[in-house]
Amino acid sequence: MKVLVTVKRVIDYNVQIRVKADGSGVEKENVKMSMNPPDENAVEEALRIKESGKAEEVIIVSIGEDKAQETIRTGLAMGADRGIHVKVSHDIEPLSVAKILEKIVEKEQPKLILMGKQAIDDDSNQTGQMLSAKLGWSQGTFASKIELENDVAIITREIDEGLETIKVPIPVVATCDLRLNEPRYASLPNIMKAKKKPIDTFTSEELGVDVNPRMKQLKVTEPSKREKGIMVKDVAELVQKLKHEAKVI
Questions:
Q1: Phi, psi (5° rounding) for residue 20?
Q2: In this structure, is residue 233 part of a structural domain?
Q3: CA distances (Å), 61 to each of 115, 225, 244, 245, in order?
Q4: Among residues 115, 133, 167, 188, which one has the fewest Cβ atoms lying within 10 Å of its Cβ?
Q5: pTM tops 0.90
Q6: Number of neighbouring beta carbons within 10 Å of residue 69
Q7: Is residue 72 part of a domain?
Q8: Domain of residue 51, CATH code
């Protein structure tokens, strides 16, 4: 069984986000980039599945500019077998990503697709669900535990009320939660080996996918500054301010 894992290059979670002066987007020049954190969990889970003998190959897929290959190499250094890079010149919408991945699935014929539950840059949380619908596959979102038994996947997932366990037939698309596992660090020997592992490159045009945006971003602004709080002497003063100044009661 092949396992396909999708990864995205995003601004590192430790970096303070800055909006461009012209409001056209988020500043990415000279900013540290890294693999989207939930995608790291997806890579780790795929490697554990392979190590358990339930998969023969782990393939890393990323969509983006040339530097996205750095993110693929990170997955290869963790232990994945090979990579696929689909080159696009700009950020694309979740539906376009799902359409590209659908084409990759047609080529590779995996039985399991693992993805991060969402990307920390846009927080869309849409691609996995869209890909599942386009493929007609089962899906398990926000997975905190994945078990494979014969032709079914048993997935424990995070929901508002707590945990839900579902049993779905394979093939399946699963989106991974941060609670799923603890991603491993790539060792120096594996980092060196990753440089020699193959990465196949395609363009969206070669795959026959239109990635032109269907929505137009007008402007990006930072959230308004939070006003300084005030101290009150007692409950009576608090009630008065909530009633007359905040007007919440």
A1: -60, 150
A2: no
A3: 10, 39, 56, 53
A4: 188
A5: no
A6: 18
A7: yes
A8: 3.40.50.620
